[in-house]
């Protein structure tokens, strides 16, 4: 099983869920339990702190998207904060960066600071291991 630890901080303005480790298929049940509890609060506002998440796969992304949809349907919100470059790339590739507000800091997420949003243009494509264009390949 892939290690994922969670810390939950219930503030007046929001529930901050800090994730540590890998947010992948093998660990999504832990995340689902914490998110389900956050959805039970009277005023749903969830900030998922991704600062300590090393990797995320499509299952983790889908869990966040589904929960964000449920929160919105119930009049609340789910936002993301502090993803590393690889996480931003995965969120962009999965179409999530444009559907779930993603902030540079947890404080910006709590404040709803639109100036600190990570946008599609911030998400540069991940470098490829081998140039795809023959003209860019070096020969010995």
Which key terms come to mind for this protein?
alpha/beta, five-stranded mixed sheet, 140 residues, 4 helices
Shape: globular
Give, in order, the helices and strands: EEHEHEHEH
Instruction: Give the termini separation.
Output: 43 Å
Proportion of residues in extended strands: 25-35%
Summarize, please.
This protein has helices at residues 28-39, 58-73, 85-93, 106-111; strands at 4-10, 15-23, 45-56, 77-81, 102-103. By secondary structure, it is α/β, with parallel strands linked by helices.
Write the layout of secondary structure elements.
Blueprint: E1 4-10, E2 15-23, H1 28-39, E3 45-56, H2 58-73, E4 77-81, H3 85-93, E5 102-103, H4 106-111
Parallel strand pairs: 2-3, 3-4, 4-5
Antiparallel strand pairs: 1-2
Helix pairs in contact: 1-2
Write up this protein.
The protein is of the alpha/beta class. It has a 5-stranded mixed β-sheet with strand order 1-2-3-4-5. Helix 1 links the parallel strand 2 and strand 3. It is globular, with a radius of gyration of 16 Å. 36% of the residues are buried. The mean pLDDT is 88.
């Amino acid at each position: 099983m892939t290690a994922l630890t969670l810390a939950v901080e219930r503030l007046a303005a929001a529930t901050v869920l800090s994730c540590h480790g890998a947010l992948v298929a093998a660990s999504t049940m832990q995340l689902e339990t914490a998110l389900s509890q956050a959805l039970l609060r009277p005023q749903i506002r969830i900030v998922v702190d991704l600062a300590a998440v090393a990797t995320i796969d499509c299952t983790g992304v889908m869990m966040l998207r589904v929960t964000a949809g449920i929160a919105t349907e119930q009049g609340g919100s789910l936002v993301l904060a502090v993803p590393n470059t690889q996480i931003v790339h995965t969120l962009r590739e999965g179409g999530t960066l444009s559907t779930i507000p993603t902030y540079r800091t947890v404080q910006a997420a709590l404040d709803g600071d639109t100036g600190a949003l990570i946008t599609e243009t911030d998400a540069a494509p991940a470098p490829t291991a081998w140039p795809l264009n023959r003209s860019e390949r070096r020969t010995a």
